[in-house]
């Protein structure tokens, strides 16, 4: 695992997600921590080689691939952990994540896996949008909700660590439907990152990107959300049972889901679109024969 520097005191580590790093005098702040304790261990041994002590971790959001290494690193370094209020609630109580994928019920073991829930970790400080100074190292927190309820991005010097507010084309091609929690917020955050005056942008699952390239990525992410919305509305020429609608939309994207946890992720994203369209009064829900039915209003 190489430490790549972007600027004198700002860089990243290449784990399954990009872990940001802000360097001070023999110390550093991490932005996210990777999937699990074994990633945390690799991060720490790399930082030891660089003679850097982790004094803080800013978790951008409560998806295990981003915060799963936090507990391990905190335990070994005493680092203070920062997150937004809602994401902190899940990082401290990771079972909440599979609970919401199971529609509020206690989730089956299959959903209680390490990709759905990371090691729990106590959050020392709740952060909100604005400047944050940790041991003379200065960063700026930017609210980028949508992909998850209260995701944050972090600006350090001339770089925006975008978290999962924008995805690279490979992820778009692979998943076809980008995982999101709130359509309106996801689009707003995509537009928001374009207004941020940084030289470099680092999407957690992508590469270091300049503004011009970021613009293209933002546009393809936005276009992908429009495509999902269109495919949902196209499917609703007649009213449909909710489960049928979900499977029809997945079919239209030529997706074949094989695991219950993948189904939980994609159906939750499609529900986010349905709830968004319902609030816009483009569709409605009714119950017939004890089943939710979705119908087009316009
Ligand atoms: Zn995520």
Reading the helices and strands in chain order gives: EEEEHEHHEHHEEEEEHHEHEHHEE
Structural class: alpha/beta
Q: Helical segment tally?
A: 10
Question: For the record, what CATH class of the largest domain applies?
Answer: Alpha Beta
List the ligand species: zinc ion
Shape label: globular
What fraction, in percent, of the residue positions are helical? 25-40%
The total count of strands amounts to 15
Overall pLDDT, averaged? 96
Main sheet: strand order: 1-2-3-4-5-6-7
Distance between the termini: 53 Å
Annotated CATH architecture of the largest domain: 4-Layer Sandwich
Low-confidence stretches: none
Main pleated sheet = 7 strands, mixed
Can you offer a commentary on this structure?
By secondary structure, this protein is of the alpha/beta class. It has two domains: 3-226, 4-Layer Sandwich (Metallo-beta-lactamase, Chain A), CATH 3.60.15.10; 228-296, Winged helix-like DNA-binding domain superfamily/Winged helix DNA-binding domain (Arc Repressor Mutant, subunit A, Orthogonal Bundle), CATH 1.10.10.10. Helices cover 38% and strands 24% of the residues. It has ten helices and 15 strands. The chain has helices at residues 37-49, 64-67, 70-77, 85-92, 96-101, 169-175, 183-194, 211-235, 242-252, 260-279, and strands at residues 3-7, 10-14, 18-23, 27-31, 53-58, 80-83, 125-126, 130-134, 137-143, 152-156, 159-163, 200-203, 240-241, 283-288, 291-296. A hairpin with a 2-residue loop joins β8 (130-134) and β9 (137-143). The longest helix is centred in the C-terminal third of the chain and has 25 residues, at 211-235. The protein is globular, with a radius of gyration of 20 Å. Bound molecules: zinc ion. Residues 61, 63, 66, 147-148, 164 line the site of zinc ion.
